[in-house]
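re the bet — no i am not wrong, look at it urself. input seq straight from the record:
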Amino acid sequence: MLNRLLHLLEEGGTRRVSDLAKELETTPELVEVMLEDLTRMGYVKPVTSECSDKCATCPMSDACAAGAPSASGGGRVWVLSDD
């Protein structure tokens, strides 16, 4: 299932954990754990607060949850590693 998740991420675009869970027919909690596993393996990395500080000038700000407060549906964001 990790391979399927990685393949979905490689397709590009922005996806919510809940949407990934539906596509993988699993729970959002399991997707979160798999993303953490992919992070430990070096395939993805979490977006840091440095990114969310630049939301006003980011062309993806409307589609990104990095800078959104948790109460408004914001959440953690991962990107594919450069390695």
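see?? Confidence is low (pLDDT under 50) at residues 69-74. told u. also Helices lie at 2-10, 17-24, 28-40, 49-52. so pay up
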